[in-house]
Amino acid sequence: MASTANRRAGAVAPGSATQEMLLRKLLHAFYWMDDGLQAHMMREAGLSLPRAQSMMMVCIADGVTRQADMATHLRVSKQAVQQALKALIAKDFVRIEPDPDNGRQKIVTLTRKGHEMRRIARTGILALERELAERIGADRLEALHDALGADWGPSGRAD
Description:
Helix content: 55-70%
Low-confidence stretches: 1-8
Number of domains: 1
CATH class: Mainly Alpha
Strand content: 5-15%
Mean pLDDT: 88
Largest sheet: 2 strands, antiparallel
CATH architecture: Orthogonal Bundle
CATH topology: Arc Repressor Mutant, subunit A
Order of helices and strands: HHHHHEEHH
Distance between the termini: 46 Å
Shape: globular
Structural class: mainly alpha
Radius of gyration: 19 Å
């Protein structure tokens, strides 16, 4: 019989369809990291960002700086990207500048305040990874990094 703690944690019977859904596990893992990051940002910077704005900051950190590319990368509309960027501009985290490689394009760059937020976020993420290593073991965390960083090939999604 499953313990009360296991039931509250969402434990399911081995072999059940729910247990085998990787997507669910990935989402729970993402939410665990994101919730922890948002709590860290609140403690260290006095604010946290809505997920859409947070994802824009991740895109910029990953080198995705054109609005159309952000929309494609995040699989959202260009209007959703523009709305999130407006909020980030109002918070003085990003600015939009001419693209030096293409005069017809604009790119999004971090401001000094945006770089500081990125530094605080990085510190929080590393702390969360240390906490996770303590909880699940360093070997399992390394294996998770390896599995998620592997080339999975195309998803089969029709584009």
